[in-house]
Amino acid sequence: MVAEQQVAEVAQKVAKDKYGLDVELVTFNDYVLPNEALSKGDIDANAFQHKPYLDQQLKDRGYKLVAVGNTFVYPIAGYSKKIKSLDELQDGSQVAVPNDPTNLWSFTAAAAKSGLGSN
């Protein structure tokens, strides 16, 4: 179970126990779908994105959504089947990066902090 789901399940329980609210958790498998569902009225709220991503979605897709509160920002992570540490990357290694401007910025900042690409 991923951290986001664990946090959502705790929030769901608190909403029920403390406020008497029945919250249905909805899982999406595509990063664009939560805002689309919210815009269409299929869901009442979502919590998955940082402000720069929301701003870009509002600009690109014309959604009339507003941020009503803050939530967690989870750190960016790297995954590999071949290496166990960034130190194992060699010149010419291929690294996949996010294809949207806001998450590309997060990746670039994390890469710079880790020393990746500083040669």
TrEMBL record:
InterPro entries, sorted: Lipoprotein_NlpA (IPR004872)
Key words of the record: Lipoprotein, Membrane, Palmitate, Signal
The keyword Zinc-finger belongs to this UniProt entry's keyword annotation: no
SUPFAM superfamilies assigned: Periplasmic binding protein-like II
Pfam families according to UniProt: Lipoprotein_9
Major localization class: membrane
Localization terms from the record: Cell membrane
Membrane-related topology note: Lipid-anchor
Domain of life: Bacteria
Example of a GO cellular component annotation carried by this entry: plasma membrane
Family classification: Belongs to the NlpA lipoprotein family.
Name by which UniProt lists this protein: D-methionine-binding transport system MetQ
Organism: Escherichia coli
